[in-house]
Amino acid sequence: MYASMALDPHNRCCGGRAWCVKDICGVCCVLLTWLLILFAEFVVMRVILWPSPHPLFSTANIAIFQMLAFLAFASHIRTMLSDPGAVPRGNATKEMIEQMGYREGQMIFKCPKCCSIKPERAHHCSVCQRCIRKMDHHCPWVNNCVGENNQKYFVLFTFYIASISVHAIFLVITSLAECVKNEWRQCSPYTPPTTIILLLFLIFEALLFAVFTIIMLATQLTAILNDQTGIEQLKKEARWAKKSRLKSIQSVFGRFSLAWFSPFTKPSNKSRFNTHFYSV
């Protein structure tokens, strides 16, 4: 089964090594996300921290902001380029069913849209054009589905974007207070009107993304703890034995360690998906 998945070139790039959804809307949202992160980088570094007369404050906040921005960007890339749990297309053939070891007369379910054997808790995504295991939703901002294999990276993306947004709000407020205190003398390399416009744009962006990502983060964590994806909550589906909250967390992040917060590690606890099937 995994061999057939590897041979399927659909939604694959870099010689099949990376997952890549070819959706124009999603690509535009990804580019916009990167541009907004770069704008925040420019204002925080060029307008706020580099001109700061307090070197210790400036150095500490540069280190914090750059670390959070790097982790947010890495989480975004990992979410976007990770297979979310796609079921091989067209595997609902008699030969494949026999190869998988299903007995004659055993009930299995087939997705009519991608001709796949449909695993339990899988849903078809019209954008990815695949059935996705434990699909939560399709997110255009990462140009990918959030599913069994990449939910950890999506949660980290929302967490780190929320963190740099709150940090940026703090930096804007302290910068404005410093500028007013010094009557805008040596406040930034730009004129006071330009500085005000850049800071206002940044605080508006930071407030918008802080609210959005905090809500999304809370929604994702609630879904994980309840062992129920966003689609399952909407459809009010609960036809499986729910795991405990600890097991649910471990199924996404693995056993507790600092690796929970790293977008470069994969959780080790993955369940088999070819044992039970159901229809939507």
Topology:
Blueprint lengths: L1 H6 L4 E2 L4 E2 L4 H26 L5 H27 L12 H6 L10 E2 L4 E2 L4 E4 L4 E4 L3 E3 L4 E3 L4 H31 L10 H34 L4 H6 L9 H9 L27
Antiparallel strand pairs: 1-2, 3-4, 5-6, 7-8
Helix pairs in contact: 2-3, 2-5, 2-6, 3-5, 5-6
Question: What attributes characterize this protein structure?
Answer:
280 residues; two-stranded antiparallel ribbon; 8 strands; 52% helix; elongated; acyltransferase; PFA4/ZDH16/20/ERF2-like; EC 2.3.1.225; Palmitoyltransferase; protein-cysteine S-palmitoyltransferase activity
Q: How is this structure best described in words?
A:
The chain is mainly α and 280 residues long. It has one domain (22-274). 52% of the residues lie in helices and 8% in strands. It is built from 8 helices and 8 strands. Strands 1-2 form a two-stranded antiparallel ribbon. Strand 7 and strand 8 (144-146) form a beta hairpin. The longest helix has 34 residues, at 192-225. It is elongated. The chain starts with a helix and ends in a 27-residue tail after the last helix. Residues 1-6 and 271-280 have low confidence and may be disordered.
